[in-house]
Structures are given as C-alpha cells and as structure tokens.
Design a protein that fits this description.
The chain has two helices and 64 strands. The strands form eleven sheets. Strands 15, 16, 17, 18, 19, 20, 21, 22 and 23 form a nine-stranded antiparallel beta sheet that branches. The longest helix has 13 residues, at 30-42. It starts with 29 loop residues before the first helix and ends in a 19-residue tail after the last strand.
Amino acid sequence: MMTSTPFFPRCFPESSAWKEPRNRDGTLPRRLAVYLALAVVLLGFCSLEARAQTYGPPKIVYGSDFVSYTGTTDYLVVPINGEDVTLYGDIYDSNWIVDSSYNVYDNNGTWYGIYDPSSHQIGPQPSAAFAVAADGVTFLDNLPGITVIDHSPIQGWATAGPFYNGTAYVARLENIGATFFQEGSSPWYFYDGSSNVTFDGRGEWPVSNVFIDLAQAMYVNGREYDYETTSYSPGTGSLSENVTYLDSATGETVGITLSANIGGSNTLYYSSSSIWGYWNGTLFTGSIDPSSGVISGLPSWVAITFSPATLSSTNGPALISWDNHLLSYYFTTADGKSVYWNAGDGSGDYTVIVASDDTVVALHGSFSTGGTWTSPGVFNFQGAPGTADILALDSNGDLLPGELSLGMTFLFGSDGPGHNIVGTGASMSTVYTFRRPASWGVKYANLSDGVYLVQDENGNYTAPPYKFQAASGETMINAIGGWPATNIYPQQLYINGIICAMVSGSQYDSGAGFPRNGGVSYRASAYDLTVVLSWNWVDASTGFQGFVTGKYGQSSSFQGNWDGLIGFTNVTNGAIVSVSPPSSVPTDGNPPQIAVNGSALKYDSLASAALTNAGTPGDVYTGPLGQSLTIYQNGSVSYVPGAGAAAITGSYNATTHQFAFGSGGDTVTVTGADGSSNTATITATDTGGHNLAASTGVSNSGGFTDVAGSLDVHGNSFTLGSWLDLSQASNPGLLLSFTPPAGGQQALFRLGSSLASANWIWSHAITDGSANHQAVMQLDSSNRLSLFAPTDGTTPTIIFDPEGVSYINGAIRIAPQGDILMGDFGN
C-alpha cells in the first residue's frame, strides 16, 4: 500500500462549466484517460489543500484493491479539446478519484461508474466496485448478502474481495439465493438469500445456525465418550453433519448424523437424524433432534446425555451399591432416565438406570436384567441372579428403610471384616455387603431377637457382643474407627421396683476370642443393694449365656438367668428384676381395678413386671384373700379364687370392659375345699369402684340401650362419657345442665367439659346416613372459632382469634351505614 498522500494540487481556478466527455458506452475517451494519467504523475509537484470528504464513500473496494479517502481538492487535466481543464473531487490512496459529478476512476483513468450518495451503490450495475464504511468492513450498499471477516486469507469469494483492510481479510458475496456455506475452518451456516449478515472469524467463529453445537463429550450409561471427529456432506440444498465420539478406555464409539435441507420460501427444515453406537459390544440406535439435541427412541438399557448433572436424582435413590461397588448418580436424560454408574472391574462397569415410570435396568459387562423401583427405597428384580445386593442408599450411604428386613448393620473402614456372625438365629440370617462413600457396610437381615458376635478382619471373634431387638428397630454398629462398646447393658435395673444405677467403669470384657466373658455392676446405695449382670460365650456353637446376681446388705441374695435383652427368668428369693420401672397403671385398655362380688382386686405392678420378665406380658390384679386375676397381652384371662385353687380361664374385651367366662358371662362358679360351690361376678371398675362395663339392656355381650319413644329427664343435669384421671377415678366427659330462673336472674343453660383442654366441633354427615362427617365449625381449647367452607371440612376459611390474628379468606362487604373505627393514637 502507498505511503504518500496523493492529494491533487490546486494550480488553476476551478471551472464549474466544464463537463466531462464520455463515450457512448459511458467510458472516457482515450485522450482524456491519458491526460488523467498524466495528471496523476504531476500530483507531487504542487501544494495541497485538503478539504472535507465531499463526494465519495469512506473507502472503495474493487477486487482485492482497497483504497481509503485521503482528501478533496482540485486537480489539473490538460488539454481537453485544446483547453486546459481543472476537475474537483475526492482523492483516495492509490490515486482513485470520485469527482464532483460522482464519477469513479482508478489511477489508470478507468471509469467504474457513478457513486450514488443515497444508496451508496456504484453503478450502473453490475459493478465490481463497492462503497465501504470507515471500519473497512461494512458494505454500504445494504443489499442482501454475506460479509465474512477472518485473520487468514479467504478463498472462493467473488463478488467483492477478498481484500485486506489493514487488520483482517474481508470478503463479500451478494445476489445469491438461499444456501449452506462454510469459510475455511468455520462451522457451516445457513443463509436465507434475503438478509444482510456478517460472520466474523477473528475470534471464535459464531455458532452454527444450522445444527446444535454438540458438546465435547457425551455420557452413555455413565461412561464418558469424548469428541473425536466431525465431517460434513454438503449437497444441493442439503447438508449433513457427521460427529463421532470415542470411549478411549474401551475403544467403542458413538456416531451422530444430523441432516438439514432448504425448503420452500428459502426456509431451513430438518430431516431424520440419527444416533448410533456401541456399549459393551452391543449396537444401539436412536434419534436426535438436530435443533435441540434431544435424544429419543433408545433401548431401555441405554441412557445418553451431553451434560452430566450433579444434582440429586429425580427418580431413584441418592446412591446405589451393587456387588460392593458404589454407583453414584450421574444424570437424568431428557426422556426421564436417571443413571447411576461405577467404573467397575475386569468384567465391566456397573450401570443402573431408573426410568420415570419406575422401571429399572441393571447392567454389568454382558449381564443385563430388568426390575422395578418403589420409593423410598426398594428395588425388585424378581430374584434374578446377581441382583440381591443391588441396594438403595441415602446420601450418607446408609440403607434406605424398606429395602431389607430389620436386622443389624455394621459399618467398617475397610472391606473384609464382619462376614460371619454367631448367636441366636445367626444361621437363619441373610448377609448383604454394600459400599458407602468412604466405608463399607454389612447388613444381617432376618435375625431373631438376641445377642450376637461378629468376626474381625482376621476371622477372630474379638468384637464385643451386640444385641438386636426388632421392637427397637434397626441396630447400627459404627465400627469404622474400631469396635464400639457393647450395647447389651441397660443403663439401670429395677429390683422389686428399686432403681439401681450402672456403676461407672465397672464394665469388663475378656476379649481376645473364645472363650469370652464380661459383665457390669449396678448399685442402689440407699438400700445397700448391688446387682451384677454377667455373661459367658464358650465357643461359636455354644451361644450367649447371661446371668443376674444380687445382694441385699450382708445376708439376702438372689440369682437368675438373663437373656442379654430384657428377660430375666428363674430368679430366686422373690426378686423381681426388670430393665424399666414397674408401671403404676395397667396396660392401656385394661381396667384400673377389678371387683369380685364387690371385693376389690388392685393392680399389682411388681407381679406384672415379673410376668413380663417371664416372657408372658400381662397385668396382674391381687386381692386381700389371696385371689389373683391376670389379663394377658392377647386378652385371655386367668382367675385364681385363692391360694392353691385351680385357675378359671376366660377373656376380657377392652372395648366394652366386660369379662366372659364361657356361658356364664362375667359370672364364675367357685368350688371350695369342702366341695361347696358359690358364684362370683367379676366386674371391671375404676379405682372408685364404678362399673366400667358398657350398659347393654340387651345381652351380656355388649351393645347399647335402645329407648323406643320420648325420653324425659326431670333432673337438671346430664352427663355423657367417662375418662380416667391420674388417680384412675372415672369422670364424666360432657355436662349439660339447666338452672331455672330465680331471684330476678334469667335461666341458665350450660354445656361444659370436665377436661381443661377440649375442642368443640360441629359437623354433618357427608351424605345422608354416612358415618363420615365434615366439620362445619370448631371452637378450640384456645377459644379460637373456626368456620369451614361447605366443600372443605379440613381447612377453615374464617378464624376468629380473641388473643391473636383473625383471618378471613374472602371478601368483606359493609353497607355504608356508619364509620369503622381503626387503630388509635396519642397527641
């Protein structure tokens, strides 16, 4: 590019009367062209006077020639028809000229047409010269076309350029129809033939407007396939993109073919596009949307995504353990498949796919099977081999509830220990091993209640004994940092109701494998009472043997057997041992007291505790004449009329509070030692001796009293229902009373409760005769009044709260009949 400033000098006054001669075809006569060339030679010999740009555009492009405006001045052309002529116009480097009549010449005097300042076109068209803005990029003619900018030379662009503007290469293509195109290494683009677009490749090429920009990696069943190659297959009005991904670990590939076409009205449309690949040697195929990248039509055992998620699964659990491998959640596909994956072992990786319809596919190497998932934690593979230890875990790596039956779960810091267990019911247990995020777990299911020992990593039984009780739920033993202390010892014992606390530091354990023994001491200093729980475990086949021994003061002592849980049997000297305090009241539903022909049998807490220790829980009632009556947990009854007498059996109905002894109902026949007989009526009562049995008026089996006709109650009070207070006395529940008018006072009607806290509910049947009711209004124990909508008896729509905020879910309309006072203030 020239570095001089080729302004034409002003040597003569300019003449506005001169008109430039032309040939009929619009070109300059040869003589004028020669004179113009001569004028160019003389430019450097006169002084310059630059003026503002007047006639031409900022820059002009012709082919690869790119010239910029440098000034406006007069220039000399001599002679024309024997006369000297001065022209006026814009001058460009390389000595292009746009004169005052907007004629465009190059430095050889070649005429390229006339510049139109309005349309910024150089014509007549077609012309190879173009007006360009000062940025050296923007074509000012505003015609439909494509402008391409790149740092590297541009190939194959014919309309304008390619030219170098000092910083980049620019090319222009105009007057073309809809097409697919690509420049160098750029993506392919679609051009509709009617717009004016620019593609700038000086940084990153714009994303293709034909196909979705596919990611650099895809994930098939959790395994990563990295981008490998891209190729294109352009055709007449069509374009196909072929992308391959490679799993470098296995050498397996996935291919994607995207297809696009130009349709009617120069619009872009897509034809069928496909995805195919290999996973563990098996070919799979599906479809992919070229505009969105959504994949569909894959087999149930294949799940693919381009962006693995880190959020929690939308379908299955947080984690899965399979074959002692931890499968992490990776992603959920657009069609609702949640994928769990682990790199696995020499047989292949592990993949579990949980679909949105709760169907499951488990894959390992060449193994594949289907099943179902039930939230919150149960996989079911119908007993298929190799699936028993596919276990659902929470985010901590713990087994989800419901996955396995109750049992004992041990957590270890390494894989190996705890694979054998001895104790009650150990031979019947099922063992499951599972992997956690930073540890391992072993679950022993189907255990019976008892005490167990677990092997250490060397196969020795050095661990403390641990107990399992189904009533207490799952037993968790965290041995990650070493064996924790045994859980078999209660914190306190009760001897005939006297509490004995565990003596701190008294626990001992011989350890070091079989034979094993251990124990702990308890003490009630106020009673000079010491108790010891101890145990022996001779070998793996013998099992746990527990003992309880105790001593009162210097002389009285007792001993018995202990099952390692809460059971104590064969205890001597009348001692009653329990791990919980004897209850002062019977089991819920059983009567506080029992009357035999009016003589009270009272609840005996110690005898009841002894019954529980014997493994036959029940409530025992004893009388002053040696009588006893026991109501067992299953409702069966045993009545002993006196010491040494034979038991009479029957049953007790906790709902109606009635005893039944065969055909005699609540009446039994007692035969004395002398052979005489008498009858005894057995009645459930409260501690005040009031009969708790429901009145029947029909039979002794329970029911209700039917009053046919009107019922007149002449008394002024009426009570309904009953409940037992802390003293086990019976109290009425509802009180309805009437106080007649007297002494000038009005009559009083009272509806009251004998309980300090009660809710009053008004309701009606949902349908005529239905036992299901819907609340209408409620007055609760905090004096809040709630009103319910006719269609919803659960959520009140109006709440009046005398001490809090009242609430009305609806509009309030107040007739204009006065003011509403709101708030107050001080002055």
